[in-house]
Description:
Elements: H1 15-50, H2 58-81, H3 89-114, H4 120-141, H5 145-164, H6 170-222, E1 226-232, E2 237-240, H7 242-248, H8 252-255, H9 260-266, H10 273-288, E3 292-301, E4 304-314, E5 322-330, H11 332-346, H12 356-367, E6 373-380, H13 383-390, H14 392-409, E7 415-420, E8 423-428, H15 434-446, E9 452-454, E10 457-459, E11 463-470, H16 477-493, E12 499-501, H17 504-526, E13 529-538, E14 544-555, E15 559-561, H18 567-573, H19 576-591, E16 599-603, H20 606-609, H21 614-625, E17 632-637, H22 644-655, E18 659-665, H23 672-677, E19 682-685, H24 700-714, E20 718-722, H25 727-735, E21 740-742, H26 755-761
Parallel strand pairs: 11-12, 14-16, 16-17, 17-18, 18-19, 19-20, 20-21
Antiparallel strand pairs: 1-2, 1-5, 3-4, 4-5, 6-8, 6-11, 7-8, 9-10, 13-14, 13-21, 14-15
Helix pairs in contact: 1-2, 1-4, 1-6, 2-3, 3-5, 4-5, 5-6, 13-14, 19-21
Amino acid sequence: MRRLGRRGSDDHLSDYDRHRLLNRRLEFTARVLPWAFLIAAIALSTIVVLLPADTGMFRWVWPSVVAVSSIAFSLYWLGRSRLGVSESQTTELVVLTIQVVVWGVLLACLALMLFPILDPGNELVLTSTLMGGIAVGVFPTLMFRGFTLIWIGLVGFGLAGGFWTEPEPSRYVLIGVLVIFLVSLHSGTLLLANLFERRLRAELIAEDERDLVELLLNDLEDGAQDWLWETDSRGVARTVSYRFAEQVGLPAAQIRGRTMHEILIGIGASRTVEGRKSLDLLAANFQAGTAFRDLTMQVVVRGDTRWWSMSGHPGSGESSDYGWRGVGSDITHSYHQRQNILRLAEVDSLTGLSNRYSFNAQVSSLLRDGRRVWLAILDLDNFKSINDRLGHHVGDDVLRDVASRIHGVLRSNEICGRLGGDEFAIAFDDIEDTDEVKDRFQTILDAFERPFALVGNQIRIRASLGYGSLPDDAENLEELMIVAHLALYHAKESGRHQIRAFDVALRDRATGRARALLDLRRALIDEEFELVYQPQVSAGTGVVVGFEALLRWNHPTSGLVSPGDFISVAEETGLIVPIGAGVLRAACTAATSWPEDIRVAVNVSQVQLRSSRYVESVRQTLEEVNLAPERLEIEVTESLVIDDADRDVLVQLSALGIAIAMDDFGTGFSSVASLSRLPLDRLKIDRAFVAPLDADPASSRFAVLRAVIAIAKSLGLDTVAEGVETERQRAMVTECGCDVIQGYLEGVPIRAAEIPAYLHRHPGARAGEV
């Protein structure tokens, strides 16, 4: 694009730029000329009509000619400037020439006709008026120097002719003063014309620059999703690119000249509270002159709700009218994505319930109201076995269905969330009666009575629930969560599928368990654990066939602690794994000093079996202490046989040559079918079947004992009777066909150092093995 020059000469301008400059001069003349000449016509006509001298018909003819010409020329130029009616520039120059000549002649005639007949006072009035008329006429024609000279020459000639009618030497003085006035007026006119010329050229240059900026903005926006905006110091849009106009949904002509605040209000930015806050912030930044970034606002364009992000900074341009520049972008898609992410951050993606964070926030809002809040935590009883047997994808389906069941029985004011895993939480604050609260939680558990239809099967899901309240049981949400968990643990320990409320005893118990955990960790470091061994003797021959390793804890302050008081804590915390590893190594090491036909039995928990590389750690221990696998017996409790994962571990142990015994048989959930699936070598009959034999040999327990031993024989399993303390009990279990006896009758648990002496004094101790 060619740039308009800044110098006064038009010689270096292109035809296009000369045309633009001439058009701008004519625009200025069209705006000023009608009013200037109209004022002069009214003043002069008034003077002519009111003159006291006898001017004859001139008094009325001259004003009439002036009025007609004023109206005609004024209508022409007003139409040019206000109505946008524009002839060719040549025509306009011809009209301007005619008007200057006509009016110059009219004013010259006025001086020539009136000076000879006026008295000195009226001559002075006429002289002042005509000289003022010359000055008024110069202003609208100053953009054209030739017209200015014509005007000054014509009127000055007429006024000089009038002065010539005066007597000597006055005429020479008046003409001299007139010449000085006209020369000064023309010099001032040239200076003023140069100033106006530079102003016009500056305006055209600014337009060129603005057009260039718009062109560059349009080129930039063609390859971008954003748009640029620019305002003057008042906040009025001065540069409107086509993309900005497209985003606003209005033609650029309707946007330019309006403030950014007006533009944004016009497209609905003030309809929402957030939008009004954004507009206030925008106005505050404009007023303070501070830059802003990523100002988000909601707008409505062509009936479609959109989200914009706007940034801007104050300018430091050459012009004092320079205001703000910035960039805007339509972030509707990213805004919805961000909102969706925020929603996902508060919702559990698997179940659609509130997640832990969102649930805590909702419960916190209830706590702020100062009312009693009930919080329950629900946990599925058999979820892990479902995951292990049917796969995690089925487990996910279970969690979805459980969430649906819970949500289906909730009231509108009750809050439900998934805390993680198979743990759910429910809270409400509108019930005071404790019995009614328990009934509400029972309703939730009852929702699980109907079997779940999964993978083509009807699966029964059970759940346990513990609950507490604030302020009765806790002082804040964190404590409320803790007491609800304590109540849940109590429900599970009570047999599962239970509802338990929190009480102070549970807190004391939890404190005791926490203290026990600390003591257990210290006991591992200080080696406070020791093993004692209880002999197992053949029922038929009295031969010692093995020893069961029993764990004891020598507590520094509490003395000897039995496993029943600390094993559950060790299992819950995972400490049972290192404790069990130490027990296995110590027992195997002790057995290497015994006769080779005597085995050692070690109890193993479910947590140990499920620990990583358990089978490999047992094999490695046997190799390191140099004990034959056949001399080791692993004892597992009856409750483990329902889990396929545990069965696989037992199969691997049996493949190494290690014997597997089921401990406490008859107190759990085993069936004959499940026994046949396990790689068992022995059944250990619980002491609950042995103890009643002394009091009533014909009791049903005796029949059950005989039946259990018969079943074991049919499966090819040896049997061990635990808790044999009298000769009568020994005789009866032997009569039933039991293979091995273990109990105080044959020997109390002893330390490893005492075993050689025990074997030496026990009759037939080395005679053989069952």
